[in-house]
Amino acid sequence: MRTILMVLSLIVSTGLIVTMSATVETIRRSNVDLISSTIGRYDIAVGKTDLSPEPFVNLAEVAPRVLAADDNITAVYPRFVTEVELSAQGEQAIGT
């Protein structure tokens, strides 16, 4: 009897873990779709060359040019994207 209960508990717990994983993935996709529908699904990256003394793009100068480039572009929002390196408690990681 104990063996049957153990097998059943393992099957149920495995099923719950799989269900929870699928639910989390569904919620993640739903959030991405919600954000994408609000701010747009496409990004255009505008950056400066590595030789430029000024690291930032002048938004007041660039935004009108980007908006005029195509009628389908409806808004321009600045966003900082850079590579970072993290070193904490003996572990290192690199990301954007």
The total of beta strands comes to 2
Can you summarize the main beta sheet?
Answer: 2 strands, antiparallel
Number of helical elements: 2
The oligomeric status of these chains comes to single chain
* Overall morphology: elongated
* Average predicted confidence as pLDDT: 84
Structure class: mainly alpha
Kindly list the characteristics that best describe this protein.
2 helices; two-stranded antiparallel sheet; 2 domains; 96 residues; mainly alpha
Give a description of the structure.
With 96 residues, the protein is mainly α. It has 2 domains: 1-40; 42-96, no CATH class. Helix content is 51%, strand content 10%. It is built from 2 helices and 2 strands, in the order H-H-E-E. It has helices at 2-39, 59-69, and strands spanning 84-88, 91-95. The chain has a two-stranded antiparallel sheet. A hairpin with a 2-residue loop joins strand 1 (84-88) and strand 2 (91-95). The chain is elongated. The N and C termini lie far apart (54 Å). The mean pLDDT is 84.
